[in-house]
Design brief:
globular; 5 strands; 35% helix; binds ligand CA2; Rossmann fold; alpha/beta; 5-stranded parallel beta sheet
Length: 146
């Protein structure tokens, strides 16, 4: 079984519990279910969420040996974290960056992403469908399709 890491940054544990006008009413458990269902045969997901930058970096290191790709919504660390970028730069398989909201329609500080300097694909504004598209793309790339 090939494993896709689906990593989520700070405050995403609140998904479905606060600010539904921006992030919708579905929860992280719904994300997990949708991502698992989106996998091709022979693939599975490991969905993780942390409010701590170092924990996310440790999971990216773990993923180097344990995964065929990463789908990551780094939350606010997207816009601040050179350390997460460095960890992803030391990770070889494909990386897809996902944002639930359309960050480019929001405040200027959300328009820049350190993670985009490494990501093989970037999805914003599709809601939870962005995670599904990310998982589909990793399955495709990990199966050798371009
Ligand atoms: O649109 C996204 O997915 C973001 O990565 C979400 C981050 C934000 O800082 C980025 O600019 C864009 C914030 C995640 C907070 O998630 C919440 C979910 C529900 C309620 C409150 C926060």
């Amino acid at each position: 079984m090939k494993t896709i890491y689906v990593l989520n940054g700070p405050n995403l544990n609140l998904l479905g519990k606060r600010q539904p006008e921006i992030y919708g009413s579905a929860t992280l458990e719904d994300v997990e279910r949708l991502c698992a269902a989106a996998c091709d045969a022979g693939f599975g997901i490991r969905l993780l969420q942390s409010n701590h930058e170092g924990q996310i970096i440790d999971w990216i290191h773990e993923a180097r040996e344990a995964s065929c790709g990463i789908v990551i919504n780094p939350g606010a660390f997207t816009h601040t974290s050179v350390a997460i970028l460095d960890a992803l730069n030391a990770y070889e398989p494909p990386v897809i960056e996902v944002h639930i909201s359309q960050v480019h329609k929001r405040e200027a500080f959300r328009h820049h992403s350190y993670v985009s300097l490494r990501a093989d694909g970037v999805i914003a504004g599709l809601g939870l469908a962005g995670y599904v598209a990310g998982v589909r793309r990793i399955c495709q790339l990990a199966s050798g399709a371009g």
